[in-house]
Design goal:
This protein has 119 residues and is mainly alpha-helical. It is built from four helices and no strands. It has one domain (32-118): Helix Hairpins. 84% of the residues lie in helices and 0% in strands.
């Protein structure tokens, strides 16, 4: 059985907005990261960095948000499949969390490299 609805750009945009609203309401990590994005994007904009550096910082921050959403989706699917403690369920959640962690490290590394380049 195919669960895919008929394609519509408007329906797909609504599904994406529904997902965003759900993540904001239920995912505390995503809320915190979104708060920092709203805080830091204007700061990145006004800093006297070259455009390319600003883009790197914005893209790597957006990557944090994207990977956090994927992490939440993986956690939801694992929880749907089993509520039991299982090594594979733990592994899936831990690996997804590691992806978020590496993305945050990448973003921080970009800040460090750009900061030292400007000193």
């Amino acid at each position: 059985m195919n669960n895919k609805p008929k394609y519509s750009i408007f329906k797909n945009a609504k599904y994406a907005l529904d997902g965003l609203v759900h993540a904001i309401r239920t995912e505390s990590s995503f809320k915190i990261e979104l708060f920092f994005a709203v805080l830091f994007f204007p700061i990145i904009y006004i800093l006297p960095f070259e455009l390319m550096y600003k883009l790197v910082l914005i893209v790597t921050f957006m990557m944090i948000l994207i990977v956090e959403l994927l992490n939440s989706a993986i956690e939801n699917v694992v929880d749907l499949v089993t509520q039991e403690r299982h090594p594979l369920a733990k592994s899936a959640k831990d690996i997804a969390a590691t992806a978020v962690f590496f993305t945050v490290l990448l973003h921080l590394l970009c800040w460090i490299v750009i900061g030292f380049k400007l000193i």
